[in-house]
Amino acid sequence: MEQLTTIIFFIVLVSVIVAILSIRYTVRLRRYLEEFIYVSKKISNKEFQSRLNLSVQGELGELAKNFNEMIEIMDSTISEVEYSHLQMTSILKSISHGILAIDIDGNIMLINEEAKRMLKCDCDKPIEGTNASILINEEKLLKEIVSFKGSKKNKRKEIRINDDLVYKISLDPIYLQNINNIIIGSIINIQDITEKVRLENMRSDFVANVSHELKTPLTSISGFIETLKLNENIDQYTRNRFLDIIESESNRLKRLIDDILLLSFIENKDNVLVDSVCIYEVFMEVYDMTSYIAKSKNIKLTYEFSDKSIRVFSNRDYIKQVFLNLIDNAIKYTPENKDVHINVGIKQNSIVISVKDEGVGIPEEDIDRIFERFYRVDKARSRDVGGTGLGLAITKHIIKYLGGSINVKSELEKGSEFIVTIPQKNFL
Ligand code: ADP
What we know:
This protein is an alpha+beta fold. The chain has four domains: about 1-90, no CATH class; about 95-190, Beta-Lactamase (2-Layer Sandwich), CATH 3.30.450; about 195-265, Helix Hairpins (Orthogonal Bundle); about 275-428, Heat Shock Protein 90. Helices cover about 55% and strands about 20% of the residues. It is built from twelve helices and twelve strands. It has helices at about 1-45, 60-95, 115-120, 130-135, 140-150, 195-230, 235-270, 280-295, 315-330, 365, 380-385, 390-400; strands at about 100-105, 110, 155-160, 165-175, 185-190, 275-280, 300-305, 310-315, 340-345, 350-355, 405-410, 415-425. The strands form three sheets. Strands 2-1-5-4-3 form a five-stranded antiparallel β-sheet, sandwiched between helices. A five-stranded mixed β-sheet has the order 7-9-10-12-11. A two-stranded antiparallel sheet has the order 6-8. A hairpin with a 2-residue loop joins strand 3 (about 155-160) and strand 4. Helix 6 packs antiparallel against helix 7, helix 7 (about 235-270) runs parallel beside helix 12 and helix 9 runs antiparallel to helix 12 (about 390-400). The structure holds adenosine-5'-diphosphate.
C-alpha cells in the first residue's frame, strides 16, 4: 500500500512538473508569437529598424535570428532600391530635355518634369500608367510616337508645334537588358529648338540681306565702270557725274562693310575693353562730329546735362556709337530749320539719355521693327541720307550688353524721341 502511495505521489509530481513546464513553454511561445506579430506588423508598415528579441535559446532563438537577418537584408535591399530610384529621379529632373518612356502598349512608364511642362500635363495627377494618346494633345507629336511603337530603328525629327514653338524629337527603342533582349517600349527625348531655329533663320536672312545690300552698290559701280570703258569719247561732264556716282556707291559699300563688321564684333565679343567713361566727354566728341551736319541743314542741336560728371563703367567706343547713331539719325530724319535736343540725367538710379527731334516721325506699326537689321521705314529716304539700316540694330545690341533698354516715342510729321536707360550697376 505504501509502495502504491509512493508511485502515485511520483506520478502526480511528474505530472505537476510536466504541467508547469508546459504552461511556462506555452506562455513563452505566446509571448514570442505576440512579439512576432508585433514586429511583422511594423515591418509591413515599413519600419525596418524593428527586430525580434534574441534572448531566447534553441529553435525559437534560431527562428528569431533568421527572421532578424531576413529583415536586415530586406532593409538594406530596399534602401539600395530607394537610393537608386532617388538617383534616377534626380537625374531625370536635372535633364534639360523632356524625357518620356512608353511601353509597347503606349502607356507612360516614365516622364520627367521638363516633358510634363512641354506637354502641358496636369502635374498633380499621377501620369505613369496613363496612355500617351490621353496625355498628348499635340497631334503631330502623338502621330510620331504612335507610329514608332515597336520600331527597331532610331528616329530624329523636327516638329513645328506652332509659329512660336519648334521641338526636335529623338525616338529610340528600349531593349530589355537580359538574354531575351526584346523591345519593351520606346524612349522619347523632346528638345525645344525654337531659339536655335530662330537664330538659324536670322543668320540665313542676314546673309541674304547682306548679299543683297552689297550687290546693289557693286552692280552700280561695275555698270558705270563698264560704261566709261566702252565710251572713251564721253564728255567731261558726264564722265565726272559717273565718277561721282562710283565714289558715292563706294562710300556706301564702305559704310555697309564697317557697320556689318561692327555689328558682328558687338555680337560675338564678350570680353571687350571696359573703362571708366565720362558720358559728357564722349557726348562732346560726338557733338563736334555731328554739329556741322546739323548746321548744314540749319538744325539747332541743343543739349542739357543734369550732371556733367556722370561716369559709366563700359567700353568707350560703345557709348560713343550709341550717341552717334541716335544723333545722326535725328539729324538725318529731321527737315531743315528744326530742332534736335539731347538730354542726359539720372532717374531712379539709372542714366537716362534722350534724343528728341522734330523730324518725319515713325509710323506706329514700324516702331517695333526699326531695330531689326536692314529694316528701314522708307528705303529710298534712308538711302538718300546715306543710311545702312544697321545703326539701330548696333545701338540695341550695345544697350543689351550694358543691361539697359531703349524706347521710342514718335508721332508722324511731328518727331521722335529715343530714350536709352542704363542701369546703376554700370555707374562708377
Ligand atoms: P538707317 O541707316 O537706315 O538710318 P537705322 O537702323 O539707324 O538705319 O534706322 C532704321 C530706320 O528707322 C531708318 O531707316 C528710319 O526709317 C527709322 N528711323 C531711325 N531713327 C529715326 C528718327 N529719328 N526719325 C525717323 N525715323 C527714324
